[in-house]
Amino acid sequence: MRRGRRALLVTTAAYVVALAWSAAVLPERVPSHFDGSGRVDAWSSRGSLVLLWVVVGLVVVVGIPVLTRLALRGDGTWVNLPRATKDHWFAPSRRDEFRARFQDDMEGFVALTTVLLVVVMGLTTWVGAAGRDGVPWWVFAVVVGAYLVATALWVVRLLRAYAPPRDA
User: Fold this and answer.
1) Which of 6, 8, 30, 148 gives the lowest tally of CB atoms within 10 Å of its CB?
2) What stretches pass through the bilayer (predicted)?
């Protein structure tokens, strides 16, 4: 099993566990939004928040890999790459390798995004279950900042991994 798929399965399991934990421990009135300083500024019911997390989880964990698979079908019409890169990877001799590698890379990115969702769900559940009024502003800044740095590194790695050879 490829690394991206394995990471996606592990993070999906963590998401399901976090979702079940949240549904079990959250009170009926739960925080649903935080302002820039980390204070709760909107509330909703436990049921509506858990339903939102189910939908977001399905869109991210199922939707993105399915869309990736659909976009990779055929001659690459739905894949947006620079012309030289696309010509290289969608040559008949490399197309299958590209599809497998890119699907795995996207599943790895979905796993990274799922980690972000688990952390945000955990913070929200912690605030709601503990009856707190929020979290320090820097907590969300660190979480989102780490996700953005990881995303930037992922993009750089992707650009290098799929760059066609210079002699191509």
Assistant:
1) 148
2) 51-72, 109-129, 135-156
Q: Find the helix or strand (DSSP H, E) in which 24 lies.
A: helix 3-25
DSSP secondary structure code for residue 165 in this structure: P
Q: How far is CA 8 from the centre of its chain?
A: 9
Could you count the other beta carbons within 10 Å of the beta carbon of residue 70? 10
DSSP state of 73: S
Which residues contact residue 57 at a Cβ distance below 8 angstroms, ignoring those fewer than 6 apart?
12, 15, 16, 19, 114, 117
∠ CA 12-14-15, nearest 5°, is: 60
Task: Tokens 């858990």: give the residue.
Answer: 50
Q: Where are the domains of the chain?
A: 3-162
Encode the chain (168 residues) as per-residue pLDDT tens digits.
899 999 999 999 999 999 999 999 999 999 999 999 999 999 999 999 999 999 999 999 999 999 999 999 888 889 988 888 999 999 999 999 999 999 999 999 999 999 999 999 999 999 999 999 999 999 999 999 999 999 999 999 999 999 988 875
SS3 80: coil
Q: Identify the sign of the CA torsion 91, 94, 99, 105.
A: negative
Judge if pTM exceeds 0.90. yes
- Cα 16 from Cα 72, distance rounded (Å): 28
